[in-house]
Amino acid sequence: MTATIRPDTHIDPAATPTEDDGPADAELTDAAQRDLEARLRARYPDVDPALVHAAVHDSYRAFDGARVRTFVPLLAENVARRTLRAHQATV
Q1: How far apart are CA 43 and CA 72, in angstroms?
Q2: What CATH number does the domain containing 34 carry?
Q3: Total number of domains constituting the chain
Q4: CA-CA to 85 of 20 to 30 Å: which in 10, 13, 53, 71?
Q5: pLDDT tens digits along 36-74
Q6: pTM (2 d.p.)
Q7: Is 45 exposed, middle or buried (0-12, 13-18, 19+ CB in 10 A)?
Protein backbone atom coordinates (compact mmCIF):
# COMPACT_ATOMS: atom_id res chain seq x y z
CA MET A 1 0.00 0.00 0.00
CA THR A 2 1.41 3.36 -1.04
CA ALA A 3 0.42 6.64 0.53
CA THR A 4 -0.15 9.48 -1.87
CA ILE A 5 -0.35 13.18 -1.20
CA ARG A 6 -2.97 14.98 -3.19
CA PRO A 7 -1.66 17.99 -5.11
CA ASP A 8 -4.28 20.21 -3.47
CA THR A 9 -3.01 19.31 0.03
CA HIS A 10 -1.75 22.36 1.88
CA ILE A 11 0.66 22.06 4.79
CA ASP A 12 0.38 24.98 7.14
CA PRO A 13 3.88 25.86 8.42
CA ALA A 14 2.30 27.54 11.45
CA ALA A 15 0.81 24.18 12.43
CA THR A 16 4.15 22.37 12.49
CA PRO A 17 5.89 21.91 15.84
CA THR A 18 8.43 24.49 16.90
CA GLU A 19 11.32 24.21 19.31
CA ASP A 20 8.93 25.05 22.17
CA ASP A 21 6.81 21.97 22.63
CA GLY A 22 5.34 23.23 25.88
CA PRO A 23 5.93 22.54 29.55
CA ALA A 24 5.98 18.77 29.17
CA ASP A 25 8.99 19.01 26.87
CA ALA A 26 10.74 21.41 29.24
CA GLU A 27 10.15 19.08 32.19
CA LEU A 28 11.48 16.10 30.25
CA THR A 29 14.53 18.09 29.21
CA ASP A 30 15.20 19.17 32.80
CA ALA A 31 14.87 15.58 34.01
CA ALA A 32 17.16 14.34 31.24
CA GLN A 33 19.76 16.97 32.15
CA ARG A 34 19.66 16.05 35.84
CA ASP A 35 19.99 12.36 34.96
CA LEU A 36 22.90 13.01 32.60
CA GLU A 37 24.63 15.20 35.17
CA ALA A 38 24.33 12.48 37.81
CA ARG A 39 25.70 9.83 35.45
CA LEU A 40 28.61 12.03 34.37
CA ARG A 41 29.48 12.93 37.97
CA ALA A 42 29.70 9.20 38.70
CA ARG A 43 31.75 8.59 35.54
CA TYR A 44 34.11 11.54 36.16
CA PRO A 45 34.43 11.71 39.99
CA ASP A 46 37.67 13.69 39.83
CA VAL A 47 36.13 16.51 37.78
CA ASP A 48 34.69 19.48 39.66
CA PRO A 49 30.88 19.04 39.85
CA ALA A 50 30.45 22.65 38.70
CA LEU A 51 32.32 21.80 35.50
CA VAL A 52 30.12 18.73 34.94
CA HIS A 53 27.05 20.91 35.43
CA ALA A 54 28.36 23.52 33.00
CA ALA A 55 29.25 20.88 30.40
CA VAL A 56 25.75 19.39 30.55
CA HIS A 57 24.04 22.80 30.55
CA ASP A 58 26.13 24.12 27.65
CA SER A 59 25.71 20.94 25.61
CA TYR A 60 21.91 21.19 25.85
CA ARG A 61 21.97 24.92 25.05
CA ALA A 62 23.92 24.15 21.88
CA PHE A 63 20.78 22.43 20.57
CA ASP A 64 18.23 25.04 21.70
CA GLY A 65 17.28 25.93 18.14
CA ALA A 66 16.97 22.36 16.92
CA ARG A 67 13.64 21.80 15.20
CA VAL A 68 13.81 18.05 15.66
CA ARG A 69 14.23 17.34 19.37
CA THR A 70 14.21 13.54 19.29
CA PHE A 71 17.97 13.03 19.47
CA VAL A 72 18.93 16.12 21.48
CA PRO A 73 19.55 14.15 24.72
CA LEU A 74 21.90 11.75 22.93
CA LEU A 75 23.71 14.50 21.05
CA ALA A 76 24.01 16.65 24.17
CA GLU A 77 25.43 13.70 26.11
CA ASN A 78 28.06 13.13 23.43
CA VAL A 79 29.07 16.81 23.50
CA ALA A 80 29.26 16.85 27.32
CA ARG A 81 31.33 13.64 27.40
CA ARG A 82 33.77 15.04 24.83
CA THR A 83 34.09 18.23 26.87
CA LEU A 84 34.83 16.31 30.07
CA ARG A 85 37.28 13.94 28.34
CA ALA A 86 39.12 16.93 26.90
CA HIS A 87 39.27 18.50 30.36
CA GLN A 88 40.67 15.28 31.86
CA ALA A 89 43.32 15.13 29.15
CA THR A 90 44.57 18.61 30.07
CA VAL A 91 44.69 18.01 33.83
Answers
A1: 20
A2: 1.10.8
A3: 1
A4: 71
A5: 999 999 999 999 999 999 999 999 999 999 999 899 999
A6: 0.70
A7: exposed
